[in-house]
Design brief:
By secondary structure, this protein is an alpha+beta fold. About 45% of the residues lie in helices and about 10% in strands. It is built from 28 helices and 12 strands. The strands form 3 sheets. It has a 5-stranded antiparallel β-sheet. Strands 9-10-11-12 form a 4-stranded antiparallel β-sheet, covered by helices on one side. Helix 4 packs parallel to helix 6, helix 7 runs antiparallel to helix 8 and helix 13 runs parallel beside helix 15. The longest helix has 16 residues. It is globular.
């Protein structure tokens, strides 16, 4: 067994906090191993048959902690809790969650809060068993203060407490929390090098690790680009204090370009919502990036990145940051002036002239030209405005409808992990239209789906000469009051947004026309017992249209049994450069010319369903 894996004997009565200090002190290199140090010994496990379920566990832990939160002798209270919590048939991590809930219920002016904070610190510092330490950490998530950072960082060196320590640190010192978080994932050598460079305050080494290709003698390198860092971009920015690094190297164009890409990624809502709230100093970072943007070489990548940053400032997560009055508008004006210069305009104009299909650099250049609206559309804070936003196609062509209320985006404030609904639903299908009969409308949903993490809904109705939004459902945070809009202005804005197709690229238009054509001519697929047709741009390949449909007995006539066998098909159609209507007509002609099932590929299919439907199982599906 290696020295690092050994569990040194723990003197009876030694706190786990002191053990962490001791364990770190005997390390020859002074480093915390990936995943952290193990606990000094195996603590008794709770038998599954004896473990309390959540309700009884919450009551039992509360019965131990409640009388101790206001105990005048915190040393004695902590010792009592250490013993009593360890005796409960409750997992230490469950104790942590329960203690967190107790701490969250204490108001700042509650007379118990002060003594509860003292108890939390004593439990974390003097606890000799995991349950007591977890209780202290759970309380400190809500009650912790800057003076608790050293305590939390020390406990974060232990494998069992690292995640709990990060949760508490994120609220009071995100840089410290990011370092503890990263240490848990330090198997990769460059991650360890980054931790070491940050810890010793070596900004030059940090920069060199972030920009290895910029360190070649000529400033360029023929080596392939390094693999992405194995951590969320907001954590990386926090670890290296990215805004401070830009202030240290204000003339470094490569660093500014990297920071701009990281900002665009942090504001991207497409996976788990924007990561901007996870970075502690986003406003100074935006200011530093915009201040250095004029040093970037005008190329397609830099242009697309700066457009993404501008869109976020205008109607994305960046718009709702705590800006000094007028500062956000100043940054948008600066970017608009820069990207309006002839050398920057020429970059997109030249790339957009490519022939053939709207793919690759051609698609991205045309997206840049279509998305210059953050600079053209500003000029007032309309009570109600709709913006259809398409993200950089080199990253992913996510399409969402953003609702702006008095010039600020609504969804990011009420449902931060959500992505606005597609305009095909909200605009083309008229879901935002108001009538006397109230209608609930979904405004946003998370990437994982409503079934997983909910969604943001509002009820829309017309009252005389006003449109009212209320009956909010799924809001993360305080419930908003009703929103009232002038009905005529509201209808005019929906009309404008529905008629504006400037955001749409060729494959998206083609897909929309194909889907509409198949709805108008259901017999094209019904004759082959196929239906449920749809068409959309391919995820990750926005220049390709995916035509999807389903085959099953009786599907064409609408008589299929709900649980009957089904086969799902997809046909991928690359953009060939011809007008969208011509491409859509050609797609439907091909589908009508013969059995479409042999034109498309099977997706999400089972062999037994194919056999039940008498459809030959493709050889490439084997295995």
């Amino acid at each position: 067994m290696s020295a690092r894996a050994e569990r040194p004997a723990l003197t009876p009565g030694t706190s786990l906090h002191d053990y962490a200090l001791f364990r770190h002190g005997i390390e020859p290199d002074g480093q915390v191993p990936s995943r952290g140090f193990p606990l000094p010994r195996e603590f008794p496990e709770i038998d599954e048959d004896d473990e309390l379920e959540w309700g009884p566990a919450e009551a039992a832990v509360g019965e131990v902690l409640a009388p101790l939160l206001c105990h005048p002798d915190t040393d004695r209270a902590a010792e009592t809790a250490d013993t009593q919590l360890a005796a409960l048939p409750v997992e230490p991590t469950t104790v942590h969650r329960i203690a967190h809930g107790i701490g969250r219920g204490l108001a700042p002016d509650d007379p118990v809060t002060g003594t509860a904070r003292c108890l939390a610190r004593r439990l974390a510092r003097t606890g000799t068993r995991p349950a007591a330490v977890h209780a202290g950490l759970g309380l400190l998530i809500r009650l912790g203060e800057p003076e608790d950072v050293p305590l939390l960082r020390t406990l974060g060196m232990l494998e069992d407490f690292a995640d709990a320590a990060v949760e508490a640190l994120d609220r009071i010192d995100r840089h410290a929390g990011a370092l503890v978080w990263l240490t848990r994932r330090s198997d990769e050598p460059r991650v360890r090098q980054l931790i070491d460079a940050v810890t010793r305050g070596d900004s030059g080494a940090v920069r060199a690790l972030l920009l290895p290709r910029a360190n070649a003698p000529t400033g360029l390198s023929t080596d392939p680009p390094p693999a992405p860092w194995p951590l969320p971009v907001a954590r990386l920015a926090e670890v290296v204090r990215l805004d401070g690094l830009l202030r240290t190297y204000p003339r470094d164009a490569a660093l500014t370009a990297l920071a701009a890409r990281m900002l665009a990624t942090m504001a991207d809502p497409s996976v788990h919502g924007p990561q901007l709230p996870a970075y502690s100093r986003p406003v100074p970072l935006y200011e530093a990036v915009v201040a250095g943007a004029h040093r970037l070489v005008p190329d397609l990548d830099a242009h697309a990145t700066l457009v993404s940053v501008a869109v976020d400032l205008y109607c994305g997560a960046a718009a709702v940051l705590d800006w000094p009055p007028g500062r956000r508008e100043e940054l948008l004006d600066t970017l608009g002036t820069l990207l309006g210069r002839p050398d920057w305009v020429a970059v997109a104009a030249q790339a957009a002239q490519g022939g053939g299909g709207e793919v690759g650099d051609v698609l991205r250049a045309r997206w840049i030209r279509r998305t210059g609206r953050p600079f053209a559309r500003r000029g007032g804070s309309d009570p109600f405005r709709l913006e259809v936003v398409v993200t950089d196609p080199a990253v992913r062509s996510l399409v969402e409808t953003r609702v702006l209320i008095d010039g600020l985006p609504l969804v990011v404030s009420l449902f931060p992990t959500g992505v606005g609904e597609h305009p095909l639903a909200l605009l083309d299908q008229g879901l935002l239209r108001a009538a006397a009969e109230p209608r609930e409308v979904r405004l946003a949903r998370p990437h994982c789906g409503e079934e997983c993490c909910g969604a943001l809904h509002v009820t829309i109705r017309r009252e005389g000469d006003e449109v009212v939004w209320d009956g909010w459902r799924g809001v993360r945070g305080p419930q908003p009051g009703p929103l009232r809009f002038d009905a005529a202005a509201y209808d005019a804005e929906i009309d404008r947004a529905a008629q504006d197709r400037e955001w749409e690229w060729r494959a998206h238009t083609t897909a929309r026309l194909v889907a509409g054509g198949l709805r108008d001519r259901p017999e094209v697929l019904a004759v082959w017992e196929c239906g449920d047709a749809d068409a959309h741009p391919a995820w990750g390949d926005p220049g390709t249209v995916v035509v999807s449909f389903v085959h099953g007995h009786g599907l064409g006539s609408g008589t299929q049994a709900p649980d009957g066998p089904r086969l799902h098909f997809e046909w991928r159609v690359p953009d060939d450069g011809s007008p969208p209507q011509a491409q859509a007509d050609a797609v439907i002609r091909r589908l009508a010319a013969g059995d479409p099932r042999f034109l498309a590929d099977l997706r999400h299919a089972r062999r037994e369903d194919a056999e039940a439907l008498g459809f030959p199982w493709p050889e490439e599906q084997e295995g």
